Amino acid sequence: MRFRDHRWPCDYPAVLRLADGLLRTQIINISAGGARLKPVDWLAPGDSVGIDIAGKLRHAEVRWRRGDTCGLRFAELLDARDMAQIRRTDLRVGQNNRGGSWNLHLRELR
Fold first, then answer.
1. Residue 49 and residue 1: Cα distance in Å, rounded?
2. Counting Cβ atoms within 10 Å, is residue 88 exposed (0-12), middle (13-18) or buried (19+)?
3. Three-class SS state of 31
4. Interatomic CA distance for residues 5 and 107, integer angstroms
5. Beta strands at 34-38 and 48-53: parallel, antiparallel or unpaired
């Protein structure tokens, strides 16, 4: 049995690049291998998209969609620096740089 990568809650703006244009969305949780986006009620499982994350274009596939949320699987894993930027943490101290009230140690339950 393969366990899913740890998902970190976040609220990170992203831009999807589709064949017919650009769409703004939010990443609501992220792991090195994928992300959950909202709102995206126009995508379907199997669609290929480009997503601008941390200043880089990433290729991904839509794996599922429920209502106005969907899950992506990245073609290449995110590295630790990109994950830190998206989660808004500092790799050196592991603390939240923005002083917000996010608890980054929570795991999403299904």
1. 28
2. middle
3. coil
4. 11
5. unpaired
* CB burial of residue 94 (10 Å; 0-12, 13-18, 19+): exposed
Indicate the SS3 state at residue 84. helix
Q: How far apart are CA 106 and CA 103, in angstroms?
A: 6
9-45: per-residue pLDDT in tens?
888 899 999 888 888 999 999 999 999 999 987 889 9
At 71, give phi and psi (nearest 5°).
-115, 135
pTM (two decimals): 0.73
Q: What is the C-alpha separation between 73 and 76, in angstroms, rounded?
A: 9
What is the DSSP code (8-state) at residue 87? H
User: Closest Cα to residue 4, out of 50, 69, 93, 71?
Assistant: 71
Q: Cis (ω within 30 of 0) for the bond into 13?
A: no
